[in-house]
Amino acid sequence: MLEHRGEDRRHPLDLAFDARGDGGELTSWITRIETPLAGGERIDRLERHPFSDQIFVPLNHQRFLVVVCEDDGTMAPDRATVRGFVAGPGQGVVYRRNVWHAGMLVLDAPAQFFVQMTMAAGGGDDVFHPLAEPILLPSFAGWPETAGGAS
Predict the structure, then answer these.
(1) Is residue 3 part of a domain?
(2) What tens digit of pLDDT does each residue of 41-94 get?
(3) In-domain check, residue 5
(4) Fewer Cβ atoms within 10 Å of its own Cβ: the N or the C terminal residue of the chain?
(5) Domain presence at residue 1
(6) Helix, strand or coil for residue 26?
(7) Residue 47 in domain
(8) What is the pTM of this model?
(9) What gap in Å lies between CA 78 and CA 73, rounded to an integer?
(10) How many domains does the chain have?
(11) Which residues, 6+ apart, have CB-to-CB distance to 1 below 8 Å?
């Protein structure tokens, strides 16, 4: 059974997976996002994972926001390529290795996600980049379950 236990944002899962040949380890956890978007928030940083894809599978029946962009060629987010999508109930997301993306953002209510990625033996799994110009989010009230959106 996949469920969040305890008070921490992440609840590690004890799942038996083989380690990658380079010493990396497939890691799984449950993450909980307590505060849904109210509208008008700003995304002031993006992240990427240089050694692994990252998968998020919702454990609640609700919508969440996916914000991605390309790399600008200097290992920084290309602000001109930012795209946003509303993922509906029953949809998960896989962020491919090195794809810039926002942290998880939920729209209607607190939510939990099953998360999985390979953690590199040497660390450096998470790269964060502050944005000189934040991404401004609209109000999502009344949006259909899946739609385009953030800019």
Answers:
(1) no
(2) 999 999 999 888 899 999 998 899 999 999 999 999 999 999 999 998 888 899
(3) no
(4) N
(5) no
(6) strand
(7) yes
(8) 0.80
(9) 8
(10) 1
(11) none
**Cβ pair 105, 140 in contact under 8 A:** no
Give Cα 145 to chain centroid, integer Å: 18
Cα 139 vs. chain centroid, distance in angstroms? 19
- As given in the structure block, the two tokens for residue 109 are 């209510």
Which among 20, 34, 13 has a CA at the least distance from the CA of 119?
20
Q: Which tokens go with 111?
A: 């939510």
* Residue with tokens 């004890």, as numbered in its chain: 14
* Amino acid letter, 132: A
* CA count, 13 A, side-chain hemisphere, 28: 12
With helix as H, strand as E and coil as C, how does 90-130 read? CCCEEECCCCEECCCEECCCCEEEEEEEEECCCCCCCEEEE
- Tokens 């962009």 label which residue? 69
Integer Cα distance of 146 and 91 in angstroms: 10
Domain membership of residue 24 as a residue range: 10-148
The DSSP code for 89 is T
DSSP letter at 142 equals: T
